[in-house]
Amino acid sequence: QGPVCTNLGLKPGQRLTVKGKIGPNAKSFVMNLGKDPTLLGLHFNPRFDAHGDVNTIVCNSKKVEEWGAEHRETVFPFQKGGTAEITFGVNQNDVTVHLPGHQFTFPNRLNLSVFDYLDIQGDFTLQSLSWE
């Protein structure tokens, strides 16, 4: 378990940028964004080689113990031992994920009006967090 941030207060129109370093032998890392650990609007999970996925980003949502349908992105701009900058843009109905050279949206399935919670796990070392 890595860093946990609470009371972020991210509302539609705001963006959160996460910068960090990926482990040299990385298998996967996770960034969870939501209301709290039980209500995750976005589970963002780049997998180098984990759970049967190779170089795939798996996204999902979680309500208490219930996961939604997985969403897979095949564009994979991450490299083991490299750095990563990921920006999450909160919109009314979805979250836009900005990656190097690629972006996609993930629906706000839980209809969260504010994203207060972020945790980071796995083969990722947080270097900075910024929001606007």
UniProtKB/TrEMBL annotation:
GO cellular component, one term: extracellular space
Gene Ontology molecular function: any one: lactose binding
All residue ranges annotated as the Galectin domain in the record: 2-132
UniProt keyword annotation of Protein transport present: no
Protein's name in the database: Galectin
Any single Pfam family the record assigns to this protein: Gal-bind_lectin
This protein's record includes keyword Oxidoreductase: no
Species the sequence originates in: Dicrurus megarhynchus
InterPro entries: ConA-like_dom_sf, Galectin-like, Galectin_CRD
Lineage top rank: taxon: Eukaryota
UniProt keyword list: Lectin
